[in-house]
Design a protein that fits this description.
It is built from 9 helices and 8 strands. By secondary structure, it is an alpha/beta fold. Helix 6 links the parallel strand 5 and strand 6 (194-199). Helix 1 packs across helix 8 (219-231), helix 3 (71-84) packs parallel to helix 4 and helix 4 (112-127) runs parallel beside helix 6 (166-187). Bound molecules: NADP nicotinamide-adenine-dinucleotide phosphate. NADP nicotinamide-adenine-dinucleotide phosphate (NAP) is lined by residues 15-21, 39-41, 67-69, 94-97, 116, 142, 144, 199-200, 202-203, 205-208, 216.
């Protein structure tokens, strides 16, 4: 990223309340006219965090709360974002959770890791389609190198017939995100948005600690990789970045038939959400 990179107008960042996201928010404040940060915590719990952010620049900073374990909250989140802005230049889907020790279902009856890490960001992206298209914007999915070893059966997204482990659930959810970034660029009609998925690095955070008994690099390093993916003047065209450079993703993510089956089943798992809940978005198909 160089100082010549454009300064986007409106940036939306999920999972900004801790870890890599919190460090990304700090780096973005001076780079955006309007920064909309999300977290699952009640607004009263993030007062000090927002105060520190506002001290760093002159951007408008807004906080929006939603727990991704509930998909209706994700739809409401898109509505609140639409009330704050008529364009989204960059949407950074950073919020994520480790797989719980045993398979758990959300209130929407989805495997919890899949819902929080894959269905929720895909739904949010879908519901913000009009605002992203208005800005010829970019979607950044914060994925993980664990996706490289995953195998994901689109007909069994909720792991009813797949042996569950926390790391398997997590890696599958991230493979979904990597494939979705490529799908967005290849399938969504014009005006196109750019999309990219990025492995931020092995970074010392609560999430890493919950899943792996390894040390990690400081959050600043992961944040730099995410910000580069978000603000680079390069069009990423759906690519997968391993930290700061393009890398080969899991081959499934490059397979149009896999992506098509994945999106069909993804739509099925979100079809219980009313079309009336579509906030300001008309989706990718203009419907
Ligand atoms: N750390 C690594 O080595 C590593 C490697 C590869 C990929 N990643 C990815 O990087 C992203 C950031 O992770 P991190 O390591 O910074 O973890 P983290 O410190 O645990 O931060 C995760 C963020 O997501 C939020 N979040 C968690 N569950 C949520 C839910 N149900 N609904 C809405 N938001 C929720 C958290 O909120 P709270 O502040 O309330 O906890 C926090 O803001 C994730 O997508 C993760 O998968 C991390």
């Amino acid at each position: 990223m160089s100082s010549a990179d454009p300064v986007p107008t409106t940036l939306v960042l999920t999972g900004a309340t801790s870890g890599i996201g919190e460090a990304v928010a700090r780096l973005l404040v001076p780079r955006a006219a309007r920064l909309i940060v999300h977290g699952p915590r009640h607004p009263t719990e993030v007062d000090r965090f927002l105060g520190r952010l506002r001290d760093l620049g002159r951007s408008e900073v807004h906080y929006v709360q939603a727990d991704f374990d509930d998909l209706t909250a994700v739809v409401a989140l898109a509505g609140r974002i639409a009330a704050l802005t008529d364009r989204v230049d960059v949407l950074i889907n950073n919020a994520g959770r480790p797989g719980p020790p045993t398979r758990q279902l959300s209130d929407d009856s989805n495997e919890l890791t899949l819902q929080t890490n894959y269905l929720a960001p895909v739904l949010l992206t879908d519901r913000l389609a009009v605002l992203l298209r208005a800005a010829h914007g970019r979607v950044v999915h914060v994925a993980s190198a664990t996706h490289l070893s995953a195998s994901l059966d689109p007909d069994d997204l909720n792991m009813e017939h797949t042996a569950y482990s926390p790391t398997v659930a997590y890696a599958r959810s991230k493979l979904g995100l990597v494939a979705h970034a490529q799908w967005l660029v290849d399938q969504a009609p014009s005006p196109r948005v750019d999309a990219v998925s990025v492995h931020p690095g092995v970074i010392r955070t609560a999430l890493l600690h919950a899943m792996f008994d390894i040390g990690g690099a400081p959050v600043a390093q992961g944040a730099r990789n995410v910000v580069q993916a978000a603000l680079s003047a390069n069009a990423w065209d759906g690519r997968y970045l391993a930290e700061d450079r393009p890398a080969q993703p899991n081959p499934a993510a490059l397979d149009p038939e896999f992506r098509s089956r994945l999106m069909t089943q993804t739509s099925r798992l979100t079809s219980h959400l009313s079309a009336n809940d579509r906030s300001s978005s008309a989706g990718w198909d203009g419907s």
